[in-house]
Design brief:
Strands 5-4-1-8 form a four-stranded parallel beta sheet, sandwiched between helices. It has 171 residues and is α/β, with parallel strands linked by helices. The radius of gyration is 17 Å and the shape is elongated.
């Protein structure tokens, strides 16, 4: 089985705090901090790899510290990053996430700056994948992948976990 996950990858900086912000300007001490990978398709790719399947992540990031950290993390998890492109003039997507003791969170996200075009994505490979998950936030390649996959196998361009359309095939 080979799965392709296409979409957004972000570098999440997560702070755990004892209490939520009360509002207004204030400083809260964090009890824990971590830098983690994030993004719907990116998280799905790592989950598929951990389940033992062959998986590729197709996405974009800047050729910056965050982009390189994400690429290294994917590789360490066993995710194929051949089509995870780091754009020289791009800036990677990063998030600051504050999680309080009850699990409530506040997220600030910079979506990144890189070309929207996806003409570099090898669509011919899509026809041979067992499954495709396409994040709906990157419209151009999602639509192209959907057209290619419609002629071949079940896939989804919805959110993860992915419900199938009524016929079980992309439309």
């Amino acid at each position: 089985m080979h799965v392709i996950c296409l979409g957004l990858s972000a570098l999440d900086q997560v702070w755990r705090v004892d209490r939520p912000f009360a509002g207004g300007s204030e400083k809260i001490r964090a009890v824990e901090y971590a830098t983690l990978g994030g993004g719907m398709a990116a998280n799905a790719a790592v989950a598929v790899a951990k389940l033992g399947a062959s998986v590729a992540f197709w996405g974009r990031a800047g050729n910056d510290a965050a982009g390189h950290e994400m690429k290294s993390a994917f590789t360490a998890e066993g995710v194929d990053v051949e089509n995870f492109r780091l754009f020289p003039a791009g800036r990677s997507s990063v998030s600051g996430i504050i999680v309080d003791s009850s699990g409530e969170r506040q997220i600030v996200n910079f979506r990144g700056l890189y070309p929207e075009a996806a003409d570099w994505i090898p669509l011919k490979i899509v026809a041979h994948a067992s499954a495709v998950l396409a994040d709906p936030r990157w419209v151009e390649p999602r639509c192209s992948v959907k057209r290619v996959r419609a002629a071949f196998r079940p896939c989804s361009t919805a959110t993860w976990p992915t419900p199938r359309c009524s016929s079980g095939w992309c439309r």
